[in-house]
Amino acid sequence: MTTETRATTLDVSALPSHAFGLRNPLWWGLLLLVAIEGTAMGLLLVSAIYLRGEADVWPPSTVGPAALRLALIEAALLGASTFPMVWAVRAARAQRLRPARGWLVVATVLAVAMLAVRAAEIPRVAFRWDSHAFGSVFWMTLGVHITHVVTGVLENGLLIAVFFVGPVEKKHYGDLEASALLWYLSVLEWAPAVFIFYGAPALRGALQHAAGGG
Question: What is the pTM of this model?
Fold first, then answer.
C-alpha cells in the first residue's frame, strides 16, 4: 500500500452501526413510500370532490346508516392506535425492548380490530363499485386504505416476532421508527376520507330531511 493510498483511506470503524430518523436510510425509504401512497390517496379524494362539483345530485346513494356507524368505529380505533404507536417509537429510540414491544402489540391489536370492523362494514355498504361514479371512487379508496392498513399490520407483526423471538439488534429499533410512518399515513388519510364519503353525505341528507320536514 503506497503512502498516497494510505492517506486517502477513511477509518469508519468508529461510526455507529444504526441510526434513527433522518440518519436512517430506511426512514427515508419509508418516507418516499408514504409520499407516493399519500399522493395516490389524495388523488382519489380530490376525484370525489371534483365529481361532487359536476353532479346535480351527490352522492347518488349514501353508504347507509350501518356502514356509517362502523366507519366511525374504525376511525376511533385508528385514532386510538396512534398513541401506543407513538409510545412504541419513543421506547424504541431509547432502546427499551419491553415497552417498545408492548406498545407495538397494543397498536397492532387495535389495527386488527379495525380490520375486523371493516370486514363487517363491507357487506353493509348500500351500493356496488359499478353502481355509479361515487361508488367507483368510494370502493377504490376503501381498497387502497385496506392495503395500507394490512401492510402496516404485517410489518408490525414481523417486528413483534423479532422482538419476542430475537435476536434483537439495535437496527430493529430503527426499523420500528421507520415503519411507524406508514401507520401514521393509514391513520391520517382516513380522517378526510370519512368526512368526504360518510360524514358530508350524511350531514347533507339530514339537513335536507330537516328542511323538508319544516
Answer: 0.81
